[in-house]
Design brief:
By secondary structure, the protein is α+β, with helices and mostly antiparallel strands. The protein is built from four helices and eleven strands; from the N terminus they run H-H-E-E-E-E-H-E-E-E-E-E-E-E-H. It has one domain. The radius of gyration is 16 Å and the shape is globular.
């Protein structure tokens, strides 16, 4: 399955490594990192990353969503979407499960269960579903010495990045 957004992302990553940031329409993002925002007729994809080379990048955030007021028709029950996320991302090294659910706000947070442990530090994937509108994922770290958790740069080759993207788009379209 290659959606238009997946094809656009692949094309822009190829441009990034062959012709540079301007040709790929990569923009500066917070903390001297980069973002790539792609759109098709109904959806968008936001890829935020740090360093990159010919075959990989360090993922900071991946988000997909519907443009404007458009959403899945008919609206999908959030529990069905939660199930779709766990099924679509079952290849992650750390399985994810429901962590928090806010029915009034139609927001669900899924996290790695169990998270990876490095001494006192824990690291985990987090996927946030916002109603039927958008989904984003990022990798975090936390330890008792930290005031708050911190988003981590997760190194990925382009192949797993395309797989993550396809998985999130499949959940959005479900």
């Amino acid at each position: 399955m290659n959606s238009p957004l997946e094809r656009q992302m692949t094309h822009h990553l190829e441009l990034l490594v062959s012709q540079g940031m301007e040709a790929a329409r990569v923009q500066p993002w917070a903390d001297e990192r980069y973002s790539l925002l792609l759109r098709d007729a109904s959806a968008y994809l936001l890829l935020a990353f740090g360093d990159y080379d010919r075959y990989s990048l360090t993922l900071r955030r991946l988000e997909v969503g519907w443009q404007g007021e458009q959403q899945a028709e008919p609206p999908v029950d959030l529990y069905d979407r939660i199930a779709a996320v766990t099924q679509q991302l079952n290849y992650l090294e750390q399985p994810i499960e429901l962590y928090e659910y806010e029915p009034a706000e139609q927001v669900a947070i899924l996290r790695s269960a169990p998270p990876e442990r490095y001494g006192e530090q824990i690291r985990y994937w987090e996927v946030v579903l916002h109603s039927n509108q958008r989904i984003h994922m990022a990798y975090y770290a936390w330890s008792p010495a930290m005031l708050d958790r911190e988003r981590q740069a997760y190194p990925l080759t382009f192949s797993p990045l395309r797989r993550f993207t396809a998985s999130l788009l499949a959940v959005l379209a479900a």
